[in-house]
Amino acid sequence: MAESTIQVKVTAARKKTSLLRSLALPLTLSFPPSPPPTVRDVKSAIQQAYPSFPATRQKISLPETSKALGDDSAILFGSAGDAELAVGDLGPQVQWRTVFLVEYAGPLIIHPLVYHLPQLFYGADVEHSALQKSVYAMVLLHFAKRELETLFVHRFSHATMPLLNIFKNSAHYHLLSGLLLAYDVYRPAFSAPAVAGTWRANSSLLAAAWAVWVFAQLSNLSTHLTLRALRPAGTTTRAVPTGYGFSAPLRLTFPNYFFEILAWGAVCAMSGSLAAGLFLAVSGGQMLLWAQKKHAAYKREFGDKYPRSRKAIIPGIL
User: Which family does it belong to (predicted)?
Assistant: First the structure.
């Protein structure tokens, strides 16, 4: 080994895919000693050696563990100026932005089909009630907002995710907030003649639900813009967010999740739809798990700099 370089030996992880077996591993990589190479540098060097194995598909870990090392992790070298890492194959990848766009496109396609073609789904025409029209508008506006945020607001810390996740993630939106919700709410039982004289036709209730929904959607957008401002384009910078939702009076780590739940809660209260309730329960439960896990991670990462009074997702409670 030349004195001006340090070496990293890369071996194959224990779980080998067909792609991993096709590579000539172990591979020895050489780096200048300064600045110290990171996991990102190792991934880039592996991709350069094996163009069929892109960095986004690689999982780098220590040989004795399966826990992935972060891209910004510095490589620890022994006294001889060398190190050993294991590389695994995450499988085919897809852009996070693409996943989001596909997820949210489902309800935008399904709801108009069910709403405008009732003969196809119910075998009868439906005289849509103000309630049905409100749910229809709320769903389309919500997911159109999601698509626009994906294109112009969100910045992703990871470029890709496993390809198979697009089917799992899309099923949640396409089935629960798409087909099931649309079929339940636009059916004849919620039509104008069917709800006439009932609480579902109460204009004050509809107006109150719209007020809560608009407030929640605008608040959700505000928190997304705050998070965008924390991460300059092309970076993975992380910082403690402050401002509306994050600071007093709510003091939440994930006010965007809270406002999302509030918006769908308005749809549930306005409609009394079991399908809307199911979607809220499933998505709210998932957001709760994400929020608690990420909240704990933030406290570990930022230590005393992270506000102790903040809750994860529900103000003053959780």
Answer: Belongs to the steroid 5-alpha reductase family.
Distance CA 278, CA 287 (A): 14
Dist. CA 41–CA 57, nearest whole Å: 14
Positive or negative, the CA dihedral 147, 149, 151, 156 is: negative
Rounded CA separation 290/192 (Å): 39
Distance CA 152, CA 63 (A): 40
Per-residue pLDDT tens digits for 7-19: 999 999 988 899 9
Give the C-alpha separation, 41 to 47, whole Å. Answer: 10
| pLDDT 10s digits, 180-196 | 999 999 999 999 999 99
- SS3 category, 231: coil
Structure tokens at 233: 């384009």
Amino acid, single-letter form, for residue 98: T
Of 171, 173, 111, 165, nearest in space to 146 by CA: 173
Eight-class DSSP state of 38: B
Instruction: Using the predicted structure, report yes or no on whether residue 2 has a pLDDT greater than 90.
Output: no
* Alpha-carbon span 25 to 112, nearest angstrom: 53
Instruction: Give the contacts of 69 (CB within 8 A, at least 6 positions apart).
Output: 39, 60, 61, 62, 85
Residue 237 pLDDT more than 90? no
Report the C-alpha gap between 57 and 88 in whole angstroms.
Answer: 8
* Distance in angstroms (rounded) separating the CA atoms of residues 301 and 312: 15
Domains of the chain plus CATH, in order, are: 6-91 (3.10.20.90), 94-305 (no CATH)
Give the pLDDT confidence score for residue 1 in this predicted structure: 41
Cβ contact 136:115 at 8 Å? yes
Kindly state the tokens that stand for 67.
């826990």
- Asked if 65 contacts 101 with a C-beta cutoff of 8 angstroms, the reply is no
Give Cα 141 to chain centroid, integer Å: 19
Residue 60 β-bridge partners: 87
Q: Can you tell me whether residue 59 is helix, strand or coil?
A: strand
Position with higher pLDDT, 156 vs 50: 50
